From TrEMBL:
<keyword id="KW-0560">Oxidoreductase</keyword>
<dbReference type="GO" id="GO:0016020">
    <property type="term" value="C:membrane"/>
</dbReference>
<dbReference type="InterPro" id="IPR013120">
    <property type="entry name" value="FAR_NAD-bd"/>
</dbReference>
<comment type="function">
    <text>Catalyzes the reduction of fatty acyl-CoA to fatty alcohols.</text>
</comment>
<dbReference type="GO" id="GO:0035336">
    <property type="term" value="P:long-chain fatty-acyl-CoA metabolic process"/>
</dbReference>
<dbReference type="GO" id="GO:0005777">
    <property type="term" value="C:peroxisome"/>
</dbReference>
<keyword id="KW-0521">NADP</keyword>
<dbReference type="InterPro" id="IPR026055">
    <property type="entry name" value="FAR"/>
</dbReference>
<keyword id="KW-0444">Lipid biosynthesis</keyword>
<keyword id="KW-0812">Transmembrane</keyword>
<keyword id="KW-1133">Transmembrane helix</keyword>
<comment type="similarity">
    <text>Belongs to the fatty acyl-CoA reductase family.</text>
</comment>
<keyword id="KW-0472">Membrane</keyword>
<dbReference type="GO" id="GO:0080019">
    <property type="term" value="F:alcohol-forming very long-chain fatty acyl-CoA reductase activity"/>
</dbReference>
<dbReference type="Pfam" id="PF07993">
    <property type="entry name" value="NAD_binding_4"/>
</dbReference>
<dbReference type="GO" id="GO:0102965">
    <property type="term" value="F:alcohol-forming long-chain fatty acyl-CoA reductase activity"/>
</dbReference>
<protein>
    <recommendedName>
        <fullName>Fatty acyl-CoA reductase</fullName>
        <ecNumber>1.2.1.84</ecNumber>
    </recommendedName>
</protein>
Length: 305
């Protein structure tokens, strides 16, 4: 493959095998649509999925593909849907809940990993937040170390992972707690003891979500010496802007306050006039993921030459 940085993004993704976690989430759905539409020669996209509400992973995928988000693809490039390969697993389980057969298939075929799976609830128990957001990142890195053809691992973090810093620089900030010890603690202690420990862990951190994402960034930093890694920190992810459709969203999580105000249910909000809301359209985040992966992947090719 060409290693010249002027190589187009679609041509870079031609023939690539992508492993996407968080495929059923808001960001994951838009990522799938964008890749299939704008990088149609991608070889395949493996989607980590779990059964839900009496639906197996194939049924869940079909339901997702029936969303209005994929209307243009259904009409113009429906054959590309065959490139989507659901993989039974769960980010909350140890080893991502992968079977030995699926794990080996991913090791042999994957060239790019996009780790976007996360629980974004602020009130999760410490145990659950660590398992889903931190341990899964470690397990992704362990899996990636066995992939001989891997050229890029992109981890989707959050701009609020270091909320106490007035300016967030493009670097990994040291964690006050060792991520390996926290995973061991989350796996070994009972919920009651962990609930007591939570208050200590959150001395200077607002919630378990932020805490677990800080640790996950440290995981990526640890493995970056042996893996081609990048961290992406989007702010609040909002509905699509222009493409593929205007204003698409599949939940009210990021816009609930505006809906409540628009409907007249929320009349007053306690805030500061000096605070600016940091928001970004989901399709812009997806584009950045694709560009970061492209640049990281080309750099990996050059290093390996």
């Amino acid at each position: 493959m060409e290693t010249d940085l002027i190589q187009s993004i679609p041509s870079f993704y031609a023939g690539q095998s992508i492993f996407l976690t968080g495929a059923t989430g808001f960001l994951g759905k838009v990522f799938i649509e964008k890749v299939l539409r704008s990088c149609p020669d991608v070889r395949e996209i493996f989607l980590l999925m779990r059964p839900k509400k009496e639906q197996n992973i194939n049924e869940r995928l079909q339901k997702i593909l029936n969303l209005s988000l994929y209307e243009n693809l259904r009409g113009e490039q429906s054959s590309n849907f065959k490139k989507l390969i659901p993989i039974l697993g769960d980010a909350s389980e140890k080893g991502l809940g992968l079977s030995d057969t699926d794990r080996q298939m991913l090791i042999e075929r994957v060239t790019i990993i996009i780790h976007a799976a996360a629980s974004v609830r602020f009130n999760n128990s410490l145990k659950y937040a660590i398992c889903v957001n931190t341990r899964s990142t470690r397990d992704i890195c362990i899996l990636a170390q066995n992939m001989k053809n891997l050229i890029a691992l992109v981890y989707v973090s959050t701009a609020y992972a270091h909320v106490n810093n007035p300016v967030i620089e493009e670097k990994v900030y040291p964690s006050v707690i060792d991520w390996q010890k926290m995973i061991e603690i989350a796996e070994s202690l009972d919920e009651h003891t962990l609930n007591i420990l939570t208050a200590k862990c959150l001395d200077y951190i607002p919630n378990t979500y932020i805490f677990s994402k800080i640790l996950a960034e440290s995981v990526i930093q640890t493995y970056s010496s042996s893996l081609p890694c990048a961290i992406l920190r989007p702010s609040m992810v909002f509905p699509t802007l222009r493409e593929p459709v205007l204003g698409w969203i599949d939940n009210i999580y990021p816009i609930g306050l505006m809906i409540g105000a628009g409907k007249g249910f929320i009349r007053v909000s306690y805030t500061s006039k000096h605070v600016t809301g940091n928001i970004v359209p989901v399709n812009s985040v997806v584009k950045v993921i694709l560009v970061v992966t492209w640049k990281l992947g080309l750099s990996t090719y050059n290093i390996n030459l």
